[in-house]
């Protein structure tokens, strides 16, 4: 029997629903999702295995004009997603007019590989608007096949998946057939904690935070984790901890609940806050946190 396999890389502006789509395809919450832009900072693989196919999806950070080195590394992940894609999934949301970065947009319209343009969040739209938007995007990206979808409600998601499998080249699998992702367990610990930070803190705080899980120790009944929440400045440390530690406690309780769901096991989570001055602009630190740019 012929076997199909390949890389399907999801790109688009921030907050359009790329991670929601990847999770819907994979059926697991691999990528964190929040209503804030720049939730995703890495390229995260989500692998869907069937008897005769292996779809290797990549969720990527939303495309922005980088203002500091962390954001440059985030855009390097997007660039890498252009390099090895067998199918490009370009996601836009209803009401959106353009991809802010022209060079990325040019790569899409001149792409030699198939482009699926997903017009997302159609649950928030109506028929007239939808038709007008489909026409707009068909003109802008003539080489794309357009699919209106709702990643959140699953509308048209199986149809898009079917089309992806059709477009994949004949190939043996790239990963063992029981592989779900390329990221280690600690990565997901970091991300689940960061999701709570994105949800509960305002302004620059979530963008100044990185998580480093120093300990991940699995016992028979429980997994013990110790994670550091790193901030850039002393004042941010106080804000993270909050009055009598209440804010930090909330992060810990909510993260632990999600971690227990994710790992299917009881979790003990210790959280500490540390100042790590200007980590976002420090190459060595960024490398240590996995932002080296060209990694899948
Ligand atoms: N109404 C509606 N909301 C959606 C849909 N898909 C995603 N969202 C919401 O849009 C917001 C952003 O979703 P994400 O999946 O995090 O978007 P993203 O493109 O990965 O964002 P970044 O990682 O920041 O680039 C969240 O609040 C989602 O719940 C959809 O189909 N309909
Ligand atoms: Mg995302």
From TrEMBL:
An essential GTPase that binds both GDP and GTP, with rapid nucleotide exchange. Plays a role in 16S rRNA processing and 30S ribosomal subunit biogenesis and possibly also in cell cycle regulation and energy metabolism. Residues 149-151 are annotated as: G5. The keyword Aminoacyl-tRNA synthetase does not apply. It is found in: Cytoplasm; Cell membrane. It is a peripheral membrane protein. Residues 12-19 are annotated as: G1. GTP binds at residues 12-19, 59-63, 120-123. Residues 201-277 form the KH type-2 domain. NCBIfam families: era (TIGR00436), PRK00089.1 (NF000908), small_GTP (TIGR00231). Transmembrane segments: none annotated. CDD domains: Era, KH-II_Era. Residues 4-170 form the Era-type G domain. Keywords: Cell membrane, Cytoplasm, GTP-binding, Membrane, Nucleotide-binding, Ribosome biogenesis, RNA-binding, rRNA-binding. This is GTPase Era. SUPFAM superfamilies: P-loop containing nucleoside triphosphate hydrolases, Prokaryotic type KH domain (KH-domain type II). InterPro entries: G_ERA_dom, GTP-bd, GTPase_Era-like, KH_dom-like_a/b, KH_dom_type_2, KH_sf_prok-type, P-loop_NTPase, Small_GTP-bd. Monomer. Residues 38-42 are annotated as: G2. PROSITE patterns: G_ERA (PS51713), KH_TYPE_2 (PS50823). It holds the Pfam family MMR_HSR1. Belongs to the TRAFAC class TrmE-Era-EngA-EngB-Septin-like GTPase superfamily. Era GTPase family. Residues 59-62 are annotated as: G3. Residues 120-123 are annotated as: G4.
């Amino acid at each position: 029997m012929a076997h199909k396999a390949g890389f399907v890389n999801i790109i688009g502006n921030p907050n359009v629903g790329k991670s929601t789509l990847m999770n819907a395809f994979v059926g697991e919450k691999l990528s964190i999702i929040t209503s804030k832009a720049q939730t995703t900072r890495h390229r995260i693989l989500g692998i869907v295995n069937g008897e005769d196919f292996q779809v290797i999806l990549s969720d990527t950070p939303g495309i922005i004009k980088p203002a500091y080195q962390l954001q440059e590394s985030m855009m390097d992940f997007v660039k890498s997603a252009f390099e090895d894609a067998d199918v490009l999934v370009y996601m836009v949301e209803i009401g959106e007019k353009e991809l802010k970065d022209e060079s990325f947009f040019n790569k899409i319209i001149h792409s030699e590989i198939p482009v699926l343009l997903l017009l997302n969040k159609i649950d928030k739209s109506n028929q007239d608007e939808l038709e007008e938007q489909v026409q707009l995007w068909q003109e802008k990206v003539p080489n794309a096949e357009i699919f209106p979808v709702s990643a959140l409600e699953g509308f048209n998601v199986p149809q898009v998946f079917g089309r992806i499998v059709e477009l994949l080249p004949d190939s043996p699998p790239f990963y063992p057939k029981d592989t779900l992702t390329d990221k280690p367990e600690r990565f997901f610990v970091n991300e689940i904690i960061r999701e709570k930070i994105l949800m509960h803190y305002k302004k620059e705080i979530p963008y100044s935070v990185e998580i480093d899980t120093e300990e991940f120790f699995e016992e028979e009944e429980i997994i013990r984790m110790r994670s550091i929440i790193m901030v850039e400045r002393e004042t941010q440390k106080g804000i993270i901890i909050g009055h009598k530690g209440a804010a930090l406690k909330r992060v810990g309780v909510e993260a632990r609940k999600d971690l227990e769901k994710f790992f299917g096991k009881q979790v003990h989570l210790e959280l500490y806050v540390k100042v790590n001055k200007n980590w976002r602009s420090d190459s060595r630190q960024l490398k240590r946190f996995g932002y080296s740019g060209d990694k899948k």
